[in-house]
Amino acid sequence: MASTATVGKGSLDRGLELFNHLARTKGASTADLVQALGISRSATYRLVERLHEDQYIIQTPGGQWRLGPSIARLAMAAVQSVEVMDVAPELLRALAQQTRESVSLGVLNSQEIVFVYRELGPQSVRVSAELGARRPLHATSIGKAYLSGMGEHERSVLIRQLELRPHTPHTITSKARLEDDIRLSLERGWTEEHQEFDLSSTCCGAPVFDHSGHVVAAISVAGPANRMQEQTATFGPLVSATAAAISRQLGYERRN
Q: Parallel, antiparallel, or unpaired: how do β-strands 65-67 and 57-59 relate?
């Protein structure tokens, strides 16, 4: 019984090593796999034949082994079953501890952002943006973050539909200025909102993408304006990195 368990575990380990090797190299010959796995040629042939039978790996005309459609189906099923709320809270809690400010997650609803998660940092000030609260896209860092994650044409169409109502003297009410602000945010790597919705607060934001590369949410760090104004250059990269980490767990792979 112990012997059978050991063999089974060894076979599984070798199969996973093979998958990981092909994922890194994008293709390998049988001889390459023998060396990479550190097992005999006959054992490698048996493993390869079994995985090829169910199309977990396929062989190119040139004799290279590659990951096959069965692996692709498993991977797609895995990433499609993961939702933002499955992975975001832990990372947002860490961001709140790093920044010590309020951290939020929002999703698009019509032409507004709706807060679906909030984490208060150790020195955060409790504000009115409770779960379910709605915020305008043009006057908040989280809203502008969502806009920045959209394709250029899709974003332009949505911006043309927005009513850019002023909330403070600092609110952007020009569609051309909003487009420029989004372009600057894309270059910088995160969005900023300086007392544009509420004179008492300043925020940084970044978009979250799913496995298909579509924006599905946005996150932000918000705090009192007098404290946050000096912190945007520090907190911006943290927000961007956290959004990227959430996106990776949703299966997103950035392409240059």
A: antiparallel
**Residue 254 domain flag:** no
Q: Count the alpha carbons within 13 Å of 251 in the hemisphere toward its beta carbon.
A: 19
Last residue of a domain, one of 48, 63, 79: 79
Token readout for 106 is: 């929002």
Taking the C-alpha atoms of residue 222 and residue 193, their distance in angstroms, rounded to an integer, is 9
15 contacts 47 by C-beta, under 8 angstroms: yes
The backbone torsions φ and ψ at residue 108, rounded to the nearest 5 degrees and listed phi first, read: -80, 135
Domain count across the chain? 2
Residue 188 shares a structural domain with residue 233:
yes
130/8 Cα distance (integer angstroms): 51
Q: Which of 35, 62, 79 is the last residue of a domain?
A: 79
Question: If you count them, how many residues does the chain have?
Answer: 256
Which of 224, 251, 221 lies closest to 233, judged by CA?
Answer: 221
| Domain extent at residue 132 | 82-249
Task: Give the tens place of pLDDT for each residue, 74-128.
Answer: 776 665 555 888 889 999 999 999 999 999 999 998 899 999 899 888 776 655 4
CA atoms within 13 A on the CB side of 92: 26
pTM: 0.71
For 141-193, the pLDDT digits (tens) are: 999 999 999 999 999 999 999 999 999 999 999 999 999 999 999 999 999 99
Residue 255 within any structural domain of the chain: no
